[in-house]
Design a protein that fits this description.
The complex is a heterodimer. Chain A is of the alpha+beta class. Chain A has two domains: 161 residues, Proliferating Cell Nuclear Antigen; 150 residues, Proliferating Cell Nuclear Antigen, CATH 3.70.10.10. Chain A is 26% helix and 37% strand. Chain A has seven helices and 18 strands. In chain A, strands 6-2-3-4-18-17-16-10-14 form a nine-stranded antiparallel β-sheet. Chain A has a five-stranded antiparallel β-sheet with strand order 5-1-7-8-9. In chain A, helix 5 packs antiparallel against helix 7. The longest helix of chain A is centred in the N-terminal third of the chain and has 18 residues. Chain A starts with a strand and ends in a 7-residue tail after the last strand. The relative contact order of chain A is 0.15. In chain B, a hairpin with a 2-residue loop joins strand 2 and strand 3. Chain B has seven helices and 18 strands. Chain B is an alpha+beta fold. Chain B is elongated, with a radius of gyration of 21 Å. The chains are: A alpha+beta, B alpha+beta. Strand 13 of chain A pairs antiparallel with strand 9 of chain B, so a sheet runs across the interface. Chain B: Belongs to the rad1 family.
Chain lengths: 319, 301
């Protein structure tokens, strides 16, 4: 089992400034799954509760000189502490920029090693960062779990395949910061959030407790997938009536999720996505959030990066 | 004149406000614990919110109708209802968007006697809240504040200094004695509990802290620390920043009145020099009053 690659400048930028801070918010520990073509960060795919998050990069988006080999079809997966990984990348960057003369002068190498730590009798696996400075080299070892067995990797791959189903209707949230600001304040009022999404481009979130009903409705959002024209007679109704009618017409779906999960999913604004879409998976299986990234300086989707998360539905009976 | 059908349709109050954060600040100032019941009273002059604790502490927030950009009152008698202060403040807070002016409409009653809030500044995005109201409990104790004599016993101190003094008195805890001396004119806060601590405001020595002072005879009363603390513990940062001054008055029987002013004006980014704007800003102040009963064993006169 071997893995060795050099982080590119762009890769360092993506990880250090954007993705690792965002992924860290999703959960301290994640699985890092490496294949011949992809580098994938996975949260909560194997244990049922919590937000499932999948951040997938084509190897070229992060690395050059990418070499991987294993007896399991060149796939390697292990658990890693995101905050330690982030720290290692950050300090490697500072060493590079301290001594570096241009992008190729100092290369940041990452490899999988087994080492005998101090005061230990058994060697342990690490992801090692090696930075060559002007006269010195700095090596940082980030501890990782024992690489997953063939069976565990298969299980992970199966879970990953299962998490790819797309909602029929996706609506684009225009202002992620504003929604996050609202949901963060909403957290004080209740724990359960009803989310309904219609083919007309309406996103309606609502907390309902014995003391208060608090909600927000965003209308005329950009829709991807199945869409319909909003009936004119619904224009002047209250948000609640409007979404009830849309659901009964079969033009909208509604699910209940944890407010905390919803707020957490909004933390992905740290990764600076260019577009954010919300949708409800078929049969109300989960609330899916899809983030899109543009190729810098264009409005074209960067296909080498994909990020989405799936929020568990708490009470499918109400949908 | 008016038919009952019309009465049933027109709500008692519809008002709009363009500075939600100011309102949140004002209500937060009287929120000294997590779960608190408040009584709201509506009238043609404005809205009053009242909270009370164990017959010893009462706070009122006065929002005059000038605070609102629209105020339509159409009730006959003054409607009163109870709400959970925490729920009210937390839901109002969701309407506040940092760095943006957000207009909120407050309406009472809803179809099920709810208090209704709604954002009205955007057509395609709307935040709304329906807060369950209760039949208010009668206030257990009469907080009629009467002057202690012919001349007032009062002083005005910079709000930040008052808060600092009360915060400092935390470690002795238990009770705090407030004494006013006419000569030399001074105010003393003395905490007794696990040890004692004294904070003096000398009128002549601390002219920048003690803004005004009226006292013709020495008085001294003791107040429970936790009630005294409630009067400044959640004082909004805007009040501390503006540092206008808080007025403390001792009334008959040692009843202490603490008054703060909270600006509910639109955050002024432009034209601070225009007179009419300045005039408008002046009238858009929420008045906050706390009434604290003294401890029984007063060392009076």
């Amino acid at each position: 089992m071997k893995f060795k690659a050099y982080l590119t400048d762009n890769g360092v930028n993506l990880l250090e400034k954007r993705f690792l801070p965002a992924l860290d918010k999703m959960g301290k520990i994640c699985h890092l799954y490496l294949t011949r073509e992809y580098v994938i960060f996975l949260h909560n795919l194997l244990n049922g509760d919590g937000i499932q998050s999948i951040a997938q990069f084509r190897k070229e988006a992060l690395f050059d000189d990418y070499r991987i080999s294993s007896q399991n079809d060149d796939r390697i997966a292990f658990a890693i502490d995101i905050s330690l990984l982030h720290r290692a990348v950050r300090s490697s960057v500072s060493i590079c920029s301290e001594f570096g003369n241009g992008p190729t002068a100092n290369r940041l190498q990452i490899k999988l090693v087994k080492k005998l730590p101090l005061n230990c009798t058994q060697s342990m696996p690490f992801l090692t960062f090696e930075t060559k400075g002007y006269k010195s080299a700095v090596i940082q070892d980030v501890p990782i779990s024992k690489p997953m067995s063939r069976g565990q990797v298969l299980e992970l791959q199966t879970a990953l395949d299962m998490a790819q189903d797309l909602p029929q209707t996706l609506v684009q949230v225009p202002d992620l910061n504003q929604l996050q600001n609202f949901v963060d304040r909403m957290k004080n009022v209740g724990d359960l959030l009803n989310v309904s999404i219609s083919k007309y481009g309406d996103l309606h979130v609502q907390i309902f407790t014995t003391l208060i009903t608090l909600g927000a409705e965003y209308r005329k959002l950009f829709v991807i997938g199945e869409q319909a024209n909003a009936p004119a007679e619904d224009q002047n109704l209250s948000a609640q009536t409007r979404s009830t009618r849309a659901i009964s017409r079969g033009d909208a779906q509604s699910v209940q999720v944890s407010v905390k999960h919803f707020a957490k999913s909004l933390q992905y604004h740290l990764a600076k996505p260019d577009c954010t879409f919300y949708g409800i998976a078929p049969q109300g299986a989960c609330l899916t959030v899809i983030f899109q990234f543009f190729i810098p300086g264009s409005r074209q989707t960067d296909k080498s990066i994909s990020l989405h998360c799936r929020l568990p539905v708490l009470d499918p009976g109400t949908s | 004149m008016s038919s009952s059908a019309v009465d049933a349709e027109a709500p008692d109050l519809v008002c709009q406000l363009d500075n939600v954060q100011g309102l949140v600040d004002a209500f937060t100032a009287v929120r000294w614990k997590r779960h608190q019941d408040a009584v709201i009273e509506l009238s043609e002059h404005g809205i009053v919110l009242i909270v009370e604790e164990s017959g010893c502490l009462q706070a009122k927030v006065y929002l005059q109708r000038e605070v609102f950009i629209r105020y339509e009152y159409s009730a006959q008698a003054r409607p009163r209802f109870g709400v959970s202060l925490g729920i009210f403040v937390d839901s109002l807070n969701t309407f506040s968007v940092p760095g943006r002016l957000s207009i909120v409409e407050i309406k009472y009653p809803g179809p099920d006697m709810q208090l209704l809030l709604k954002s009205v500044d955007s057509l395609d995005a709307c935040i709304y809240a329906e807060i369950r109201t209760r039949i208010p409990e009668t206030i257990s104790w009469d907080y009629n504040f009467e002057p202690a004599g012919s001349s007032p016993l009062s002083f005005t101190v910079k709000s930040a200094a008052l808060k600092e003094a009360i915060d400092d008195l935390e470690w002795p805890g238990s009770s705090v004695q407030i004494s006013l001396e006419p000569s030399p004119p001074s105010v003393t806060f003395k905490g007794e509990g696990h040890g004692d601590l004294q904070v003096d405001f000398m009128y002549y020595a601390n002219t920048d802290l003690l803004i005004s002072f009226h006292c013709d005879r020495p008085v001294s009363y003791r107040y429970k620390y936790k009630f005294l603390r409630a009067t400044t513990s959640n004082i909004p940062s805007s009040v501390i920043r503006e540092n206008r001054g808080s007025k403390l008055t001792i009334g008959r029987g040692g009843m202490l009145k603490v008054q703060h002013l909270v600006s509910v004006a639109r955050p002024s980014t432009s034209h601070p020099h225009i007179d009419s704007a300045g005039y408008q800003q002046l009238s858009r102040i929420a008045f906050i009053e706390f009434f604290v009963k003294p401890e029984e064993d007063t060392t009076d006169d």
